[in-house]
Amino acid sequence: MIRFISLLVSIPLILLIAAFSYKNAQMVSIDLFIYQINLPLAVVLLFMLLIGFAIGYVFNLLSLLNQKKKYRRLMNKKEALQGLSGVFGKTDK
Question: Which of the 8 DSSP states describes residue 35?
């Protein structure tokens, strides 16, 4: 069943990518100071999209790692405070 659903999703996606590539097939020139590259516009757009996803993924990963670091620091503080509350909770009689 999962295969069928993934097939139903992937076929329109493949058709959409093919239509996008067909509509943007004209060649564009990219000047990289040292040399010049001629590529189809669709390739350039898809490559830039992938670069954007990669940059977003890296920033998201860095944010997640920062949150994990803060979480560990807060958990250590919590454990220290719980240890102190146990010491101060005892009464001397």
Answer: -
